[in-house]
Each structure stands twice: as structure tokens, then as C-alpha cells.
Amino acid sequence: MALGITGLALLFLLTAGLYASVGFGGGSTYIALLALADLDYRLLPIIALICNIIVVLGGTVRFQARGLIDWRRIWPILLLSVPAAWVGGRLAIDQDNFLVLLGLSLTVAALLLLTEPFFRSQTVGSRPQTEQGFWFAPIVGCGIGFLSGMVGIGGGIFLAPILLLMNWSDSRRIAATASVFILVNSASGLIGQLMKSAWQQEGQVADMLLSYWPLFLGVLVGGQIGSFLASKALREHWIRRLTALLILYVAGRIFWQQFG
């Protein structure tokens, strides 16, 4: 492992700490770091989805305690995204196609990280909230959920800019919605990933994941302290820019390996 398990755990802790307070799980960054470490490509989405669940579970509880989760408006987004994430995770895909899809997903994720502040500045408080048809939210959720299950990205990084662009709500409630979305779709996608025929040998997944326990401990610790310490050490826009550069680098590295 190029980065080493200890180095990865520290980077995972930092990632979780930086993003826990803004409603994201950090899945795209976990995927990027795991890709740099040259892990078995089949493990990438499983580890990233587990880390997502660990991080956003605490965030979702905090958002709920603050009354920021509007379940009446969220359930249409989850209506098709949860089964779609399961299907995406269940879908068997070979290494070359997975890496190309991952590279494209990381590229889009990085661009959204860079442009989300623009969406926020253009929508928040600038015009009334936009009303969409009933099927708008389920269709958007379905597409993002399917992609999330396949590549191991919780989907909040795709959903939040769309909701900001549509002026769906204020930024705090959108962050809460993204947190719930990541949690339920990561869980659904993880179930699909674990049900793949390649992982059906008894104990295979558990044995593999056991050796990566420092990563899970790292995101647990980072997620708990993130909103209190890590997010204050660096302004949010710099966090997003630096993470976007890392993700773009990994995406470029993947494309170079595949097509260079």
C-alpha cells in the first residue's frame, strides 16, 4: 500500500473532520485516497461507503436535534434514490469500466466543489424558493443514488449544488438534507456492494475489511471533532479548493493509466 495504513488513517481523520460540519461524508475524497493507495478496486466503494455512514450518522443526529431536517420535503428525494443505490451497488462492473466511471465521477465532484459557493451566492436570499413538479425530486434522487451505489460516493456532493441552484431551501437545511441523503444511500449502496457474487465467499469481506480498521477509527474520531476544531483551522472555501485539486489529480491519474 503506497500511502501506508497509518498515513491513510490520518488523512481519513482529517477529511472526516473537515467535512462533518458541512453535511458531507467525504466519500469522494476517501475514494481518491484509496485509489492513490492502489487498493483492490472492488474494495474502494465498500470502504468509502462505510466511512460515509460513520461520519454522516453523527451529523444527521445533530441536524435532527436542531430541527433542520424537513422529512416532508426530503422523502420524495429518497423515494427512488434508496432502491437505485442498492441496484447501483449490486451491479457487477469490470475494473476498466469502474475506473473510467470513477474518474468521471471524481471530475464532476471536484467541479461541483469548486462551483458550489457560486451557486450559494446566487441563490440564498436572492429570490423565492423554486417549486418543482412532484417527480423532479425522485428522478434527481434516482440518478444520483444509482451512481452513488456504483462508485461509493454518498451523493451529497452532487445533490447539494442542484438544490442550491433550484433555491430549494437555505444552505443549512440543504446541508441537513445532504447528510440524510448520504446516510441512507450509503447504507443502501453498501448492502448492494456486499451482495455481489464476487463477495459471497464466507468471511472474505470481513477478513479484508478487518485490516483497514484504522480507517474507520480515523473517520469516527475526525467526524466527532470536525465541527469543533478542524473546520475552524482553515476556511471552508480553501477546504473545498484543496480537496477539489486532490480529486482532480486522482481523476487525471486514473485517466492517464487507462488511456495514456
TrEMBL record:
Keywords: Cell membrane, Membrane, Transmembrane, Transmembrane helix. It is a multi-pass membrane protein. Its main location: membrane. It is found in: Cell membrane; Membrane. The keyword Transmembrane applies. The chain crosses the membrane at residues 44-63, 98-115, 135-162, 174-192, 212-230, 242-259. InterPro entries: TM_pro_TauE-like, TSUP/Inactive_protease-like. Belongs to the 4-toluene sulfonate uptake permease (TSUP) (TC 2.A.102) family. PANTHER family: MEMBRANE TRANSPORTER PROTEIN MJ0441-RELATED, MEMBRANE TRANSPORTER PROTEIN-RELATED. This is Probable membrane transporter protein. It comes from Parasphingorhabdus litoris.
